[in-house]
Amino acid sequence: MEDRSEVIQVRCDKLPAPPRTRLQVWFIRVCSSIVVWTCLFQIVVVGELWHPHLLYKITNRISQITQLPLRVEVAVQSPPSLPPARNYTSNGFLRVSCNGGLNQMRAAICDMVTVARFLNLTLVVPELDKASFWADPSNFEDIFDVKHFIESLRDEVRIVRRLPKKFHRKYGIKPLEMPPISWSNEKYYMQQILPLFSKHKVLHFNKTDARMANNGLPLDLQKLRCRVNFQALKFTSQIETLGYKLIRMLQEKGPFVALHLRYEMDMLAFSGCTHGCSKEESEELKQMRYAYPWWRDKEIDSELKRSQGLCPLTPEETILVLKALGFDKDTQIYIAAGEIYGGEGRLAALRSAFPRIVKKEKLLAPEELQQFQNHSSQMAALDFMVSVASNTFIPTYDGNMAKLVEGHRRYLGFKKTILLDRKRLVELLDIHHNGTLPWKEFADSVQSAHERRMGQPTRRKVIMDKPKEEDYFYANPQECLCEETSCDDLLSPGNSSGKG
Question: Do 228 and 249 belong together in one domain?
Fold first, then answer.
C-alpha cells in the first residue's frame, strides 16, 4: 500500500505546472518595465540635483545606444574624406626595388614617388630589399600601411598595388631594368628617363638609394618628398600599437634619451672599425667582411678611419661623452639598436655608469616581440618611433636611421638632437686618456664643440659637384620646416650647418 502511494506521489510530482496564459506573461513584462524605468528616472532626477551634467551624459549614452544602427549607416555613407584624385594620362608604369635597411629604403620611396609625380607615371607599390645582409622577408605592407600610402597621395600620383597582368612577361612585355644615376636632378629624369617610356611601358629601377639630388630641386618637389616621408609613410597598426606602448612605458618613468648605439657586428665589420676590440674580435670582423664578395673594401685601416671621425663610438667612449655633456647616472636611456657586438658583457660598463638603461627586449614580453623576430626592418621601425618621440636623441654614428630621425625631429619642432662631432671627440678622448687633459677641461671642450649641434635650425651645407659630402636632404629638409616659401626668418644668416 505504501509502495502504491509513493508511485502516485512520484507521478504527481512529474505532472507539469499549468501553463501561463499569454496575457499573464505580457502583464508581467509590462509591470517589470514600468518598475525599471521608474527607478531609473528617480536615480537620474536625484543625481541631477548633485551633478548637473549627469542627465546629459546618461541621456546622450541612451541616445547613442538606441541610434546605433543609424550611426553605423551614417559612417558607411560618409567615409573619411580623401584628397581628390589627380587626373592625368600616365606615361607608363614605374617599378622600384629598394635596397638597404629600413631608413635607406624609406628615403628611396620618397624619391621614387617624386619621380613618378613629375614624369606622370603610375607607381607600383615599392618592393623591399630581401637580399641584403639582414635577409628580411618583410614586404611593403608588412611595415607600412599600404592603403594609407596609396590614398593619401592620390592627388599627386597614381599608385597601384601590383602591375596589371597585361604588362607581365608572359604577355610579351619585358620591362627595362636599370639603376638611375645617383644624386640626379629633375632634368636628368625628364631628359634621359622619360623618353625611355616611348619604347618600354614598364621601367624597373633595381636600385633606389640616393638617386635624387639633395639641393637645387624645385620647391614643390622638395615639399612632396617631405609629404611622403612625414605623412604618407605610416607604419602598420601592429607596429604603431607596440611602438606607442614602448613610448608610453618610457614616458611614465620620466624624460628619456634615445641612444642610437651603432655597435652591431655588421656595422663594425663593414666599416672596418675595430678600436677597442680584441685581436680575436678584430679577426672575426675581418673574416665577416671577406665573406661578402660585394663588399669592395677588404683591408681597412681602423685607426685612420677613427681619426677621421668615420667610426661609431664604442660603448666605453660613449660613457665619457654622455657624462661630459651633463647626463648623470639617473638618466633614463633607451638603446635604439640591434644586437650589440659582444652582448651584455660589452654593455656592462655603460650599464654601471647609467643604471637606467633599457632596451625593447627588456621592456616588452617575448610574445609581444615574437611577430617581429627575424624581421630587422620591423624591429628598426619600433626603434625609429621611440627615437623620434624621445626627449633627446643621440646617434653615435650618422647612418641612415640617424639622419632620418634627425630630420623627423626637426620637422616636429626642432626637438633636441645631439649630433656628435666624432672627429673632434676622438681627439679629445685620446688626449684625456693619456692624462694631459683633465676632466673639467675635457667636459668643457665637449660641450663647447656641440653648442651648435643640438638640432636647432640650420641651413643645409651645399658642396657643388660633391653631393656625398653635402648635408643630406632628409636630415635637414629645410624647405619643409616653415609655411612660407622662404625660411630666411627661421634660418638666419648666422645659422649654418655645424656639421663637418
Answer: no
